[in-house]
Amino acid sequence: MHPGLAEPATKEEWRRYLTATPPPAPDMPSPTEYHDMSSVARAQFNRARKAHHSAGVLVRTPDIERLHYELHRRLDVNRYQPAGARRGKVIDGPPTTGKSTLVKLFAADYENELRETEPERFVTDEGQEFVRDYVPVVYISIQAQTTPKDLSIAIADFLMQPYRKSATKSEITTLVLRAMRIVGTELVIIDDAHFLDVSLKEGKVANDHLKYLANYTAATFVYTGHDLEEGGLFLEGSAKSRATQTAGRNDLHRVTPFSIGTPAQAKEWVGVIASMEAALLLYQHQPGSLTRHHGRYLHERTGGSIASLSSLIRESAIEAVNSGAEAITREVMDRVTVDKSAAEHFEKATKLRTRKRNPPPARPGRAVEAPA
Ligand SMILES: Nc1ncnc2c1ncn2[C@@H]1O[C@H](COP(=O)(O)OP(=O)(O)O)[C@@H](O)[C@H]1O
Ligand SMILES: [Mg+2]
């Protein structure tokens, strides 16, 4: 799968996402062969290496494995449950913690497994009165200030269901509910649900709408977003303490940036770095040097965000090719910039460390004598 693709907005784009493959890793010629290459051959080879580095690797972190397992179990429980609302999942966490990646990876695994084990369901019956095109997964990435009607429209667009321009919210909603029933939708992912308009007036409407959708389909709903709990989406009106049925019938999972406070946490962090390091195609890189020597530095640079880590390592790999360093060293990483919030985190962490190493003099006013 190619992690760099734009979010799929229709079932056809989703199917392309399912089958897209990242640029393959080119074979590494020996250092002598590399040295003796013509400049054109070397440029081609380096372009292929950089494409591979640019795509990076998707790491199946322990958190991802845990949540995938639970999502799978929830879908199994829900599949043949009699009519009525099914329990869904809410995945809540700050931006860049890998939520979209996690849910898309799950949905892709889920559909690919169905395609492999039940291929007959994916055959379209052209001879029938209408063509039934099995769509087990609906993935909706919400944009800023989406109203309930926009959400129904996004589902209709995903299913490529035409609707009249003048259609009302309830007409389009009825249409998509019917369509999801016909095409056998089992999983609906609402990504970035915090963008649903939950201003006081719309808030209750958005909640009721989500409830309505979930009530009248056989699908399991999975929502991602940040501050969903506090944002009022799953709460009634302005009284934030009163949980709605939506809150009641979905379990909440929190995702957070990586910590390295305990040995177990540090081990998970280092494991992620190791997976990324293993994909490097560089001539001078000491295997394992990032995990052995730079785990803490990488945590300070990225604040434990997997997005910042991926970006820092991928860009450093490209810098290592371009500069001829052929290794990701501390110097190479220092030359690469990261996003603003990670950079701020680094600044704070370094200041804190400098202060710890050089504590201010115990009694102010008395200069510490410099050693002779
Ligand atoms: N498991 C992962 N392995 C490697 N890179 C990841 C992983 N999860 C996220 N990333 C990187 O972080 C970026 C942002 O992740 P994303 O899932 O969009 O975060 P969120 O939805 O929480 O904001 C991705 O485009 C990818 O480059
Ligand atoms: Mg996201």
TrEMBL record:
Region Disordered, residue ranges: 347-372
Domain of life according to the entry: Bacteria
Annotated InterPro entries: P-loop_NTPase (IPR027417), TniB (IPR008868)
Entry-linked Pfam families: TniB
Name of the protein described by the UniProt record: TniB family NTP-binding protein
Organismal lineage: Bacteria, Bacillati, Actinomycetota, Actinomycetes, Pseudonocardiales
